[in-house]
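Supplementary Note 2. Why include the ligand at all?

Several targets in our set were suspected to adopt different conformations when bound, so apo predictions alone were not considered sufficient. For every target with a known small-molecule partner we therefore ran a joint prediction. The input for manganese (II) ion is given below.
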Amino acid sequence: MLHLSSRNRNSSTEEKEENQSQKPPLPGLLIKTFVDKGFVPPLKLICFITRYKFICPMELTEELADQFEKNGYFILQNFLPDDLLIAMRSEIEQLQQSKDFRKAGIGKESDFKIDDGQRGDFICWIDQQNPFPASARYIEEINSLIPQLNRSFFLGINNYECHYAVYPPGTFYKRHSDRHKKSSPRVVSMVFYLNENWQPEDGGQLRIYDQDKILAEVLPQAGTLVIFLSETEHEVMPTYRSRMSLTGWMRSE
Ligand code: OGA
Ligand code: MN
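The joint prediction is reproduced in token form.
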């Protein structure tokens, strides 16, 4: 069974106050200046200005924290704007031509093996000190979530790792947990999908389990971010289209 041992209910209010005092009123002012001069910026530009230049941090709202506490996962649709999605997709497509994209395996160090019966994806690790440009903007957003999760759930996260992943048609990742042993440093798993116009018949759903029950079935649709406790069992169903994502883990070590 999933567990989030405790929840600090005061944290989000404090956090909100803290965030608000950090937020400069600039985006609103900037947009108002444009509007006063008779120029209404396109909606996308407004989102870009407010989200990326000034307000930036993603907020773990009470509602999301409640979902995480209750179910051990939460899902955000349209997590990033289209321009960044396009940039990430073109980044992953370019990287696929490079030697950095490798067949993924299972197990660690001497236990490591490639097993197509278990997983069939190809991955490219992202260096956190020197990330590829589009992934860097995604990582910034994710990093803003870490202190919020720590404050709310005492998770002790102090590290993050991630890779791009591509599942060619016909591949899958059998049911597994990202935290094999209690000692594993992976605490929270997150998968961000990059696939335009995904249909249920394309397969490739992420299934999240609670023992014999399917808790959620998520389509790997561009812009969807799913966050779950790493100990939770989950599975990537066989995909019939090339399936691209950025998968990461928040760690305590
Ligand atoms: C993983 C994994 C899920 C997905 O890489 O460990 O479970 O939806 N990925 O890609
Ligand atoms: Mn996994």
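The chain has one domain: 24-105+117-251. The domain at 24-105+117-251 is CATH 2.60.120.620 (Jelly Rolls). Comparable summaries for the other entries are listed in the accompanying table.
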